[in-house]
Amino acid sequence: MNNAKMWLVVKPTVGVPLFLTAVAVGSFSVHLAVLRNTTWVPAFLQGKPKAKAASIEVPGGVPGSNAVVMFQGTDAAGVVVLPDGRTARVTFDAPAQTAALLPGAK
Amino acid sequence: MNYDPDKVWPSGLTLREAEELHRHIIDGTRVFGFFALLAHILAYFYSPWLG
Fold first, then answer.
1. Pick from A1, A3, A11: which is nearest to B11 by CB?
2. Does residue A77 share a domain with residue A40?
3. Which ipTM score applies to this complex?
4. Positions of chain B with pLDDT lower than 50, given as ranges
5. What is the total count of domains within chain A?
6. DSSP 8-state code for residue A53
7. How far are the Cα atoms of A25, B23, B42, B43 from residue A43, in angstroms, in the given order?
8. Structural domain span for residue A88
9. pLDDT in tens, A10-35
10. In this structure, are residues A71 and A53 in contact, taking their beta carbons and an 8 Å threshold?
């Protein structure tokens, strides 16, 4: 409490907001410095890509129970999960090659 | 050096009012310090900080 006498000289309506602003500016600049100078803070903020899922109608399957393709990271590889739980790892070709495989393609 | 308790200083406060205000400033600083300490502990354990 030995600093209490500062308020005999500094008006609280000036001193208190100044003090709080100084702490905020200090805290903000430290966070900014850490954000700029580390790799793990931006990585933390970026997070991991959520596995995108595509639902595929399984002919003859129970209505509403589709196979699901879980893409991990890139769109080229994924895991197909059949309604009965069986899975398969798949690697997708580029769109141009796939077109050639489709029935009726010239 | 003992101060006249009723003297109003340039800031418009008496010594008792100044000490009352400063007590709140100290309490607030301690609360801020507690949260900062907690954040640093969590950062220490859950981030690559300090190896």
1. A11
2. no
3. 0.86
4. none
5. 2
6. E
7. 24, 41, 17, 14
8. 54-99
9. 999 999 999 999 999 999 999 999 99
10. yes
